[in-house]
Fold this protein.
Amino acid sequence: MYSTCLFCTKDLGTNEVIETLPIGRRLAFDASQGRLWVVCRHCAKWNLVPFESRLESIDACERLFRDTPTRYSTDNIGLARVKEGLELVRIGPAQRPEFAGWRYGDQFRRRRRRNLLIGVGGAALVGGAVLAPGLSGGMGALAAVFAYQWGDVAFAALRASRGRMAVVDPRNGVRQTLWRTAMTSARVAWRDSTPVLRVMPLLSRKLEWHGDDVPRIGQRVMAGVNLLDGGRKALAAATTILGDHHGDLSSWMMLRSKEPGFVDPRTGSSPVFAANRADYWQGYGEPMLIIGKLPEVERLAVEMYFAESAERNYLEGELTLLEREWRQAEQLAKIADGLALE
């Protein structure tokens, strides 16, 4: 394999990750077509790798891509930043359930395990402090009841403290702290089919985010709500929901907001009754879904959806450029491979 770009003649760089192809800092591969390119970081041109260096390298790239938390994938192309600065561009459709499962599974399980350990440890510490004097006074049973109650209170307090987050008021730029109670009442409304995220902080006016801020803030809000969620079965069910909707839950969330059973605890009204009055909850005049009150599986699916939407906004330009370059490189690769096989 050549070490300089065929277009600009500059150095393609090296990597120590793919043993069969140590050339290049960005590799692009299409397993279905058997294509492999080294992408020049200077001119962004795609250099086709010769046949004899492809097959083992493509397999290694595919394995590495699947084991790496990918930043973003579209219908045709995905980008992964792996260890030692190597980047992989994968051509082909992403399998949504599989993609979301290996990407978020370990992350959510680690978060759940860490918060459970912190909560249980704090509750045990408080409970032990209450229990010790009771035992010394000969009232072990009564002390045990108090220890359980105080431990439960301590667990709830630790869970609330772990779930707080700082945000900036979009109206005036003032920083505010959102506690978990506010996050669990967070809701998504639709104004002219455009999502709006609303949160009601304690003793403050409601906060609203629009446009690209909805998934960015929504991801953080759902992470605070889902502190203790993320078991294996729940994650599998959540990724199935995401896969069934091809990674876009916007229509599903809008339909969910109009289903019977969602009641606003502060007004006692539901979308069904409000629809008969030609308005929705609290006079907003639009469908609204309390995302923090959804079942665990659906909350996890919404968090995944927000995370991928936020990354789509961040990386959309780069992926669009990569897809355009790939289509041009694929045309040349077909010609080159056709000549090599003759």
Summary: Confidence is low (pLDDT under 50) at residues 134-140, 142-148, 263-284. DSSP finds nine helices and twelve strands in the chain. The first helix runs from residue 55 to 66.
